[in-house]
Every structure is written in structure tokens, then in C-alpha cells.
């Protein structure tokens, strides 16, 4: 009897040791803005052996990935990867939105006290939960060209978020994380002086972000002890310019991105050991509209003016309920109503919303109108739109522009071409004992956070209700 008991204890001990050894010491969570599967496949003959080819031949690949909300942009996507939930819970509906108090556009990471911070992100991230579980000893960083990507991926409890300052062209941090920039942070400008401000493209700086990632790992000794660390990196596969020869431009983008990934993976594996590092790679899942001219090809199109529509709507409501500024503001494709005035007129918001919907749905260029009440009803047919809606900051009315039409705001420079085209992209897990496998079952990006959390044996972010992928 004692002999069998000893064998059982030995077996359990062996299993526990194996599980302990497979826990990654470092997780490198890489989100690549606008990465597309079709481009990876098209340019694969030009890739080296250390980047995409290594990931696609040795990684666990989910090639039918998607987001469970719409619309998607860089900020909402990265926040969803980090939190494992949708904007309906984490509150980051886009890179910018209209501030209800000032009725002016505000960045998702604007912070008067610290310049920029994650205070508008309403839920915890993977990094936050890792900090909690390790009593603050785990090291967590977010690196990107843009501040929203760096901060939202890093979360609230991170050691730091680092990005390229749009005015100086140098690496920048926030006093939210640390009072002074770390001494090892490079001081030389990253962005050429002629490309400062919003004119520079993140895609041009993948190499610099890769170098910074390797610097951070070495400077902070990430992944060298038994406590897991997390490095969030945001790269870009977005077009650098609206070139007439789009194929040639994207070929250059993807071949340079492949080299950057190869250098990053090879150096980290050499320094930390392949079995001790878990790489996670995915896309922000959207493609930036290029505002192409459909008219020259006789494709149905048109221009929808949100400012003119808002003015017409106000005239319409004034004719029904009496003079007043019923439309308080408008931004992007959303309209904000004056709730105080509606209350003074002694009519219900429900009635006004229905009136607005009845008028707007008849407008040329509008394919659908979603009121806040309709979105909050939670019907399955509009679940993705509801997941992208956050009541405290979203507008009362969301207008869906017909595909191919261009939305224009003549007051605040804002325009985009509507598209509902599907963007294929993968979720890839590589390293840390992961076996090569290709999985065609549809999955969603909110499952990344619980999968990483399970791998490093911590609780998933506090608004994450999705199951791990494995």
C-alpha cells in the first residue's frame, strides 16, 4: 500500500513540476495595427525564416479571428485585447470622442493632471491582474508609437507606458506611471523633424519600437526570475501613404514588419529561452479607409454631411416641440441631444428618439439609425453594435452610413468612407511549449486575455467573461 502511495505522490509531484516549468516567465503580447491575413499570404514568399514563417509553422494559429463589437479602431481594439471585454464594459469606444461636459473632442487617454493616463479605461487589464497577483513584483510595460496604444495596453498598474511624443519626436512617458523618465530610455529624437505631430506613421517606426522592447527587457531584467512579467508591444501594418501603387507600398510594409518581428523573436528567445517566453500576436482587426473616389468607376457613392443633418434635425424638432437647441452636439457619426431642454419641454426622451429615427432613416446615404434605447435593448441582431456602445460617453443617436458613402463634417475636419468589409486576421500563440496547430474554429479577440491569464496562473481581468482558447 505504501509503495502505491509513494508512486502516486511522485506522479503528482512530477505533474506539478512540469506545470510549473511550463509557466512562462515572460509574456510578449504583440498587437499589430491593421494586420491582415491576406497580405501575410500574398507577401509570404518574400519573408525570412525568423518572423511570420516561424510563427505560422511553429505556432498555434487561430485563423478565423474577429472582434465582438463594432466599430473598431486602434484604441478600442487594443483596450479589448488587454481587458478581455468590449467597449460596453471597458469604456474605450474609440481613440477620440465628444466630452459631454465641454462638447469638445477628447482623447481616450487625455488627463489634465498627468497629460495622459489610463483613467478612462473602466476595467482591469491583464497587466493589472498580474500586478495584483504578484503583489506588485511582476514587471509590466506598454510600448507603442502612439500614446493611446502604449497606455491602454499597459493598463493602470503598469511600471510604465512609453510612446513617441508627437511634438518633440522623442520617447515619452507619463507622470501617472513614474515622476521621471527612466535613465536607460534613449533621449535622441525618433521621428524626423519634418514628420512631427499627426503627420508621422507608426508603421515607419516598427524597428525603433523593436529596439526599445529589447532595451526594456535587458534594462529591467524581464523574464529572469520565477515571477512572470508582461511586455505589451504595439506595431503597425498600416499604409504609410495613399500611394497610387498600393501593392508595392504594402509589400514594403510587410517585409519590413517581418524583419522587425524576426529580430524581436530571435533576440528574446536567445536571451530568455524559447520555453520560458510566450508570444501572442494579433491584429486590431480593421483597415483604415482610404477615401477613394468611387465616382470615376461608376460605383454607387455619395457624401453625407453630418453637420447639415444635425441642423436639419434641430429644425424638425423645433417645429414639433417649439424653438430650441435640441441637438446639443455631433461628432463622427453620433448625435448628442439636449436632455435638459427635452425635460423642460415635458416630453420623453423615448418620444424624441423615435421622432429622430423616423426622420433620419429617410435621409439619402443613411442605411440605418440606432438610438441609445435600441442599442440598450440588447437584441441579438445588433449585439456587436451594442458591445461597441458605452452609455456615459456615446451619443444618443448613431448613424450607419451606406457602404461606399463618405461622411463629412464641415465644421470640425472629419471624414471617412463607410465600409463593412470583413478584414481577415489571425491570433497566434508561439513559444513556451506551444505545439504547432492550425485551428479554423471562429474565435474572438476577447478570449486572448483569459488565455494569457490561465497560462501565467492569474485571475482574468475583472470584466472578462470569455473562456480561454486553451
Automatic annotation (TrEMBL):
Q: Name one GO molecular function term.
A: alkaline phosphatase activity
This protein's source sits in the domain of life called Bacteria
Q: Name one Pfam family in it.
A: Phosphodiest
**Under which name does UniProt file this protein?**
Alkaline phosphatase family protein
Q: Which organism is it from?
A: Prevotella sp. GTC17262
Amino acid at each position: 500500500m505504501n509503495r502505491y502511495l509513494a508512486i502516486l505522490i511522485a506522479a503528482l509531484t512530477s505533474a506539478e513540476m512540469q506545470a510549473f516549468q511550463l509557466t512562462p516567465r515572460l509574456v510578449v503580447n504583440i498587437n499589430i495595427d491593421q494586420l491582415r491575413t491576406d497580405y501575410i499570404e500574398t507577401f509570404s514568399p518574400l519573408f525570412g525564416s525568423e518572423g511570420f514563417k516561424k510563427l505560422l509553422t511553429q505556432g498555434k494559429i487561430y485563423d478565423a479571428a474577429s472582434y465582438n463589437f463594432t466599430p473598431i479602431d486602434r484604441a478600442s481594439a487594443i483596450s479589448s485585447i488587454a481587458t478581455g471585454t468590449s467597449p460596453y464594459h471597458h469604456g474605450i469606444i474609440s481613440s477620440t470622442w465628444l466630452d459631454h461636459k465641454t462638447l469638445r473632442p477628447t482623447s481616450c487617454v487625455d488627463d489634465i493632471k498627468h497629460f495622459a493616463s489610463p483613467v478612462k479605461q473602466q476595467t482591469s487589464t491583464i497587466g493589472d491582474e498580474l500586478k495584483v497577483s504578484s503583489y506588485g513584483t511582476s514587471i509590466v510595460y506598454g510600448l507603442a508609437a502612439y500614446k493611446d496604444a502604449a497606455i491602454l495596453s499597459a493598463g493602470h498598474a503598469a511600471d510604465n507606458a512609453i510612446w513617441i511624443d508627437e511634438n518633440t519626436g522623442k520617447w515619452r512617458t507619463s507622470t501617472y506611471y513614474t515622476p521621471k523618465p527612466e535613465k536607460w530610455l534613449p533621449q535622441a529624437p525618433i521621428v524626423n523633424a519634418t514628420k512631427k505631430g499627426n503627420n508621422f506613421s507608426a508603421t515607419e517606426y516598427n524597428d525603433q519600437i523593436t529596439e526599445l522592447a529589447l532595451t526594456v527587457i535587458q534594462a529591467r531584467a524581464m523574464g529572469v526570475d520565477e515571477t512572470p512579467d508582461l511586455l505589451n508591444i504595439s506595431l503597425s501594418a498600416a499604409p504609410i501613404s495613399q500611394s497610387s501603387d498600393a501593392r508595392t507600398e504594402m509589400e514594403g510594409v510587410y517585409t519590413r514588419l517581418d524583419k522587425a518581428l524576426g529580430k524581436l523573436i530571435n533576440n528574446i528567445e536567445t536571451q530568455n529561452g524559447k520555453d520560458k517566453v510566450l508570444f501572442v500576436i494579433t491584429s486590431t482587426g480593421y483597415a483604415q479607409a482610404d477615401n477613394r473616389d468611387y465616382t470615376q468607376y461608376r460605383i454607387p457613392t455619395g457624401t453625407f454631411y453630418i453637420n447639415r443633418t444635425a441642423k436639419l434635425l434641430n429644425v424638425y424638432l423645433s417645429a414639433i416641440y417649439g424653438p430650441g437647441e435640441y441637438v446639443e452636439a455631433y461628432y463622427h457619426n453620433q448625435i448628442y441631444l439636449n436632455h435638459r431642454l427635452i425635460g423642460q419641454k415635458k416630453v420623453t426622451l423615448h418620444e424624441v428618439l423615435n421622432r429622430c429615427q423616423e426622420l433620419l432613416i429617410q435621409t439619402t446615404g443613411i442605411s440605418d439609425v440606432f438610438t441609445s434605447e435600441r442599442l440598450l435593448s440588447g437584441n441579438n441582431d445588433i449585439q456587436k453594435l451594442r458591445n461597441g456602445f458605452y452609455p456615459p460617453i456615446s451619443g444618443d443617436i448613431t448613424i450607419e452610413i451606406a457602404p461606399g458613402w463618405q461622411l463629412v463634417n464641415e465644421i470640425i475636419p472629419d471624414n471617412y468612407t463607410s465600409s463593412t468589409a470583413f478584414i481577415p486576421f489571425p491570433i497566434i500563440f508561439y513559444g513556451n511549449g506551444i505545439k504547432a496547430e492550425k485551428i479554423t474554429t471562429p474565435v474572438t479577440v476577447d478570449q486572448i486575455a483569459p488565455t494569457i491569464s490561465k497560462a501565467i496562473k492569474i485571475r482574468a481581468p475583472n470584466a472578462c467573461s470569455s473562456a480561454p482558447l486553451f
